[in-house]
Sequence to fold (153 residues):
Amino acid sequence: MSGLNNHERIMNTYVTQGPVKLSDISELIAKGGDFIDAGGHSLFLGQVRADVSDNKRVTAIEYSVYEGMALIEADKIIEMVMTEFSDVKSVKIIHSKGIVKAGEISLFVMVSAGHRRQASEACTRTVELIKERFPAWKKEILEDGTESWKGVK
Fold:
């Protein structure tokens, strides 16, 4: 059974419990070859940083996702990107919910397009739109066990 089948499917978007798994990333990259008219695939991996907040190291982030709204916003983001970049063939997103430790991946975006420039620019635009519109919030978990809510990623 495919690893992605274990996640909640939201059209071209997957919300996964915990960190994004390398096996899921590999599977989506392999499926990129299904778009034989695509000449470029651009990837973004968002990793949890071990930032310092209030003189304490961040050890993890707990993501909360409003999943009902995520379906709507993800569809809008994908539609906006595919409209803005006519050469885009596919946009894939995996976003974490729950706890993701520092050093682990919390966001995966892959854009396939006819040409590399469109793939790269559309990937950047997708990440920007996710930060602006995707209903996800984060709570930093600090090394002493205290927590601090941060705005939308």
